[in-house]
Each structure stands twice: as C-alpha cells, then as structure tokens.
Amino acid sequence: MTHSQGAWYEGGCHCGSVRFRVQIHMPEAFECNCSICAKKGFINLITASDDFLLLQGEENLSAYRFNTQTAEHRFCKTCGIHPFSRPRSHPGSYDVNARCLDVGFDFLDIKPFDGRNWEDNVGSITSSS
Hints:
seven-stranded mixed beta sheet; Metal Binding Protein, Guanine Nucleotide Exchange Factor, Chain A; three-stranded antiparallel beta sheet
C-alpha cells in the first residue's frame, strides 16, 4: 500500500466498538517512555482536531486522567484498548495510537521521546507542530 501525505486512514479498538478516521500530513510519530505510554505501548501520532473524526463508539469510551488532569486518555469499555487521547502537550488536538491504525504503522517515522522527563522535553514536540 502506498502512503501519501494528507491521506485519511481508519482505525479502532480491538473489538471494533470504537472506530475513527485520521488525516496524516506528516508521517511522524513518537514513542514515549513515560509511565502511561510505556505501559500501554502507545505510539503517539498527534493530529489537529480537524484531522480526526470519531466514526462510532463515543458511548463505549471511558476516560482516565491523572497528575495535572489535562490529558484525557480514552479507552474502550469493552476491550480496554486506548485508540486515542486528548494530549496535554497539544491542547485541542488528538493523539492517535498508531498501533490502532488498520494499515499498521510501519510507514511512520517513529522518534523516541523522553516522557519520563516530560517538563524538560515537551518543547521538542510542541515547537515542531
């Protein structure tokens, strides 16, 4: 499959209750080592709000917040998969779990992000967006 900038991709949770569509302009994602991303295996694909569409499953989503209560980590109540979040680093945006894309995520340039030291490093991802 050929991947092009500005293309729309679909994805969702494991059981299929939650489905979304995301437009990817830059094939770049981050692998964060913070406590929650590392435990979930989340590959962070940050996208503008206009580039994300929840197709189905709002009623099947629950949320988890911690620390500053800013980030909203969304997960499916049925299968427990975290397909996306509302990130603290990019208020008003979405952070899609690239592992939940139907096409996989091999086409993305995945960069490490030191989220264990979030305050010291967040500028490296917010200044580029």
